[in-house]
Design brief:
196 residues; alpha/beta; Rossmann fold; five-stranded mixed beta sheet; 7 helices; 5 strands
Length: 196
Amino acid sequence: MRLFVAARHAQSTLNVEGRVNGDPGRPVGLTELGREEARQLGIQIANIPFEGCFHTRFSRTKETAALALAGRKVPFETEPLLDDIDVGDFDGAPVEEYREWKHSHARRERFPGGESLDDAAARYAQGWRRVLETAHAAVLIVCHEIPLRYALNGANGSDSLDGPIHELRNAAPYLFTEATLERAVEGIEALTAKAA
């Protein structure tokens, strides 16, 4: 049985500041608590013989993965399709401003200077499918809350990408088999097509 362990990155400095970041070129490191969360993730997954690790282009995901897999020879691969949502002009803005705009606009509408939630969902489905295409038997994926939330809700057959699972803890491992990750992709694709 193939195993896919996915985790949101550990606590970042912008998590503490309550700001959003959708630009992978902006360096955002982990807090001291975040570094400890990443090390604790490593303890939880220490006995899984990972053959590969995917992270996004954001430094906080790579740093989390490096701390969680410290001392292990696991090859890393960047998967930009699982990057956080490109929030365009909202990059660096308070979370409340981002959420206010998001809740007052349709999912198909792009963030000013960025992408739409529907565009991001379609990209996430492609990213998870790319992860499925790897030949590895056990894979760690460190990404962001939204692509992981969409995968969990898609796998559970939810009628919404945003629920019932909504807020995810930093650096907590979520396990998927090949079949459940495939179901997640199909769920994301179905809900995105329905929205369109």
